[in-house]
Amino acid sequence: MIRALGMFGAAFAFAVCISGGAAGADVVSDQPSAILIWPDVIAITPESDGVGIPIAAETVFQVTNTSLEPVLLHCFHENANYHCSNTGSVCVAPSGCCNGETGCGLCEPGWLETDFRIRLTPRQPLGWVASQGMGREEVPLTGAIGSTGIGGSSNAGTNIPPVPELPYNGVLKCITINEDGTPSDRNVVKGESTRLSGIASLEAASVAKHNAVGIRAIEGAVNDDRELILGGGEAEYEGCPEQLIVNHLFDGVIDPVLLANTDLFEDADATASGRLGLVVRPGSVVSRLTMVPCTQDLLRQIPGSSVAQFLVYNEFEQRFSTSRTVDCKFERILSYIDTNDPDRSIFSAGVAGTVAGQSRVRGVGDGLIGVLTEARFTGELGAVRSGGLTNTKVFSTVPSWQYLGISFADQSDVNIYQQGDRAESDIITLP
Q1: HEC sequence for 299-359
Q2: Is beta strand 417-421 parallel, antiparallel or unpaired with respect to 426-429?
Q3: Is 12 helix (H, G, I), strand (E, B) or coil?
Q4: pTM of the model
Q5: What are the extents of the domains in the chain?
Q6: What confidence tens digit (pLDDT) does each residue in 321-348 have?
């Protein structure tokens, strides 16, 4: 059985009182664009989870050509895995880099891109699984006799490799280009991703889906060099937002809708207050924020870097603040952004003092885009994970792969609101 969750979590219903309505930014998630970015790509098999946890996760992509003409995309798998300094294997914690032969190494961050091309026929949607890719002979329209689309168009030249390794944690980026490989100003593609996750296998999976972040080209402004200028005075593409606006429930709170409609809890008042902190109980809500910089040098394999400044408001408009560095790919359960003790975090219900809140995130350096994942722990999954639900914390403080901490919960993804235009340009450099 697959449990499909809504794209927008309950946080929006409870945070509306402190959301004044975001002024439109240029980055979109609901319009065809020239650049598509999927900030959160996960692929894990039970044999490759890296920490002995029997979980599975998969990302399914769909990209669609909305125009009446074929379109060519230059795409990039951006591998953000951590690796052991002594063995080169993927790691999610320093303990995974210790063995009897090589001793203990460091669990070091990394970033490496793998590029490929996709050709879409008019009005064509194309989907594939991250861990499997799609070879030349697997495309729907190979170009052979009897295998063509409108006007003889085909997917010839498409060769989508699987993600470079498993487990995989990374980003996918696709850019419309001309036949000679130069950037195109055609705003004709849109994308989605669906993530399935479950314990041991995907036979009973939680399903979360969000739209790819789209960056629109400025018609006539895109030149034939390999530097794509996003925003600023010499913009070829619309700019990244000045700030991200994230409406969310504070970590550790019991879903208010669930609490109001069930008799699941023996001590409803104490549970609702958030005084229990970040614990795994039936109905507990935890959110995970993923962000990536808008600037990246794909030619020299240099990821972007920014400092994310957070202003966090509770429902009484009391303000808290913190900041974190964003290199390559940032992912944190909210209550681990500012501390390793989630009970003391400004993102926890016990500290914030209200059920819901709003976080405004501004990038200092490179611009930022992202997606929010909201997880609700159920009795069934929580019991399998921990053997008991009361006051059982399961979250890792490792600065990568915090997906593991919520992989035992039902999840939904949320496209983040954006506000304002950055005065500075972001630049994507193509190989």
Answers
A1: CCCECCEEEEEEEEEECCCCEEEEEEEEECCEEEEHHHCCCCCHHHCCCEHHHHCCCEEEE
A2: unpaired
A3: helix
A4: 0.86
A5: 1-25+240-424, 26-239
A6: 999 999 889 999 999 899 988 889 999 9
